[in-house]
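Folding Query — how this chain folds
Tokens — whole-number codes for backbone shape
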Amino acid sequence: MNSHIRRLALAEIIVGILHSAAGVMLIVAFGSDPFRFGVQENETFEGVMVSLVALLLLVTGALAIVGGHMLRKRTPRGRIVGLFAAFLMIVVIPLGTLVGSYGIWVLFQDSADSFFPSNL
């Protein structure tokens, strides 16, 4: 189980970096602003969707990087953050789905409890 947790931590960090880079590339390429509130008058449907996808990629990327680091250090909340990142990554096809499902499988094992301290 130790090797599965190490592999998962590394995979979450790598996929998190890729998701973040893809989100930044979408923002730069389309000139969208995913951090605004509301829809502007002259904005198209495609612009709104690109902004939402970019925001989803940035959020899942950041959460996966943080979760991967917490899994590597075996912090008490590392399992919770890793699971949350895995559930969010499932929607980002194809790499997020693979790493997310692997993360759910690894972190829901009963034997994974012993690798994380329980002083929440």
Observations:
- The mean pLDDT is 84.
- The chain is about 70% helix and 0% strand.
- The two ends are 22 Å apart (CA to CA).
- The chain has one domain: 2-115.
